[in-house]
Amino acid sequence: MQTVNKTIQMAFYQFFNGEIVPVAQPLLQTNDLGLLRGFGLFDYFRTYNGIPFRWDDYWNRFANSARLMKLDLPVTQEETSKILADLFALSGEADIAFRFILTGGYAPDSVHVIKPNFIIRAEPLPQDYPAGRLKGIKVLPYEYVRDLPEVKTTNYVHMILMADEMRHQSAADLLFHKDGEVSELTRSNIFLFKGNKLITSDRNILNGITRKVVLELAEPYFETEIRPVLLDEIMNADEIFTTSTTKWVMPVVGIGDHTVGSGLAGKHTLFLQGLFEKLIAGWGS
Amino acid sequence: MQTVNKTIQMAFYQFFNGEIVPVAQPLLQTNDLGLLRGFGLFDYFRTYNGIPFRWDDYWNRFANSARLMKLDLPVTQEETSKILADLFALSGEADIAFRFILTGGYAPDSVHVIKPNFIIRAEPLPQDYPAGRLKGIKVLPYEYVRDLPEVKTTNYVHMILMADEMRHQSAADLLFHKDGEVSELTRSNIFLFKGNKLITSDRNILNGITRKVVLELAEPYFETEIRPVLLDEIMNADEIFTTSTTKWVMPVVGIGDHTVGSGLAGKHTLFLQGLFEKLIAGWGS
């Protein structure tokens, strides 16, 4: 039998408990509290030009989620930076996404946290449709407010339950509202323009990093209001868009049967989209 | 090198994708929707005298949860019965518990269900404190109503977040209430006695199998009302108890700082507890 010098192949790997293994490798025992009790949180970000985008912001949000869930982080930001670099190098890709998953860990009694499990997955970038960002998306209004909205928990049950209905209605996402107030989409923040005024919700939302970046970019150009937003205001907005790590600045042109403005991506929205695209094109330089 | 005839040791095993492997074996890939999105449900039951208790009831509840979550079951009840028998035989124990876990399965896009993952874990029985069932427990009132209460989802975030506070206040569980109405404890149903009248909630609850059994046992002895229950009624009840697979018929003697009745387990409660214990003592015979 020949001895082969086994080398790691270019591919997507994950970090878990100090080791780096292929993403498809069975990894978790089935008494993990993330699986048994939905006691988990995550975060998701990507590189542009090979450099993690707004890494400090994503790390701080992740650390804040962990603190609110009373879970200790097993690694520092500096240690994590090194892991990200290793996973990126192993991928052989020009750009990748990273997914952090932090759970309550293995629990013999299926209730009490002993030691969290922390996983970092390297993932291929989601498919990109630049034309879609010019055309915009339709969303469905959905009466719901996320539990613990400021934590990026793993609870997305309603999104997955509604996946078929969204497909059926050619909608790309849900717009959460409750008691006449809107909060966010399933995985992204919402903005509206009324004239030259840019308005976004500050309540019952996850603090999006793309939202923060867009507010910075908009500051020199638009008057901005960050406050609770009514569903009525959304239905009477001139322009609506949503922001996220994967959606960037995405026009929202329909809410159920309601057409937003002219039904086309708004001019202010496309202007901000342009600023964002310029920022990421030059990221790291 | 000697050839050893490897035999499976007496121990706790789990079923997954047609195979039976030790419960401690790393099993799941990290792109399972139960882990990533909290899209999972479970069930939990046990044997008495080696025979699964009310197996048809537990199976039907599990199948109903799966239907409400739009997840296909990969095995029939008959096939599952055989798996339970195998896991039981491998354990070498007189009695064990079974935990079903059904998730949205592996999702390359982290959103859409392709094929559910179904795991059956054999587990040791939880520790039993017969004296505790005579003494009763204290619970903390907690304003919350479970999302999708009729589904036994894996979302128990609040229970785990409150674990330290419960320990601190010497409480064993949370009593969920909202808008003046009580629903259930984190993992068990609630009953109250007012005089000889037995009352239990029918709204925003998981349909407990032990609840069902206790209602059957109580029928010849007590007038029963199954209807929404107010928090005020709970605070003025003569006796309170809670029912579950692990708690059986457990007196509730304190709600936060409020003492229920005399602070001792009520006589009707202990009578029903006796009936339940007689039923399980003779189970299978």
UniProtKB/TrEMBL annotation, chains A, B:
Cross-referenced SUPFAM superfamilies: D-aminoacid aminotransferase-like PLP-dependent enzymes
GO molecular function: branched-chain-amino-acid transaminase activity
Enzymatic reactions: L-isoleucine + 2-oxoglutarate = (S)-3-methyl-2-oxopentanoate + L-glutamate; L-leucine + 2-oxoglutarate = 4-methyl-2-oxopentanoate + L-glutamate; L-valine + 2-oxoglutarate = 3-methyl-2-oxobutanoate + L-glutamate
Keywords annotated in UniProt: Aminotransferase, Pyridoxal phosphate, Transferase
InterPro entries: Aminotrans_IV, Aminotransferase-like, BCAT-like_C, BCAT-like_N, Class-IV_PLP-Dep_Aminotrnsfr
Gene3D superfamilies in the cross-refs: 3.30.470.10, D-amino Acid Aminotransferase, subunit A, domain 2 (3.20.10.10)
EC nos: 2.6.1.42
Keyword Transferase: yes
Family: Belongs to the class-IV pyridoxal-phosphate-dependent aminotransferase family.
Single biological process term from Gene Ontology: amino acid biosynthetic process
Top EC class of this enzyme: transferase
The protein's name in its UniProt record: branched-chain-amino-acid transaminase
Pathway(s) it belongs to: Amino-acid biosynthesis; L-valine biosynthesis; L-valine from pyruvate: step 4/4; Amino-acid biosynthesis; L-isoleucine biosynthesis; L-isoleucine from 2-oxobutanoate: step 4/4; Amino-acid biosynthesis; L-leucine biosynthesis; L-leucine from 3-methyl-2-oxobutanoate: step 4/4
Pfam families: Aminotran_4 (PF01063)
Cofactor: pyridoxal 5'-phosphate
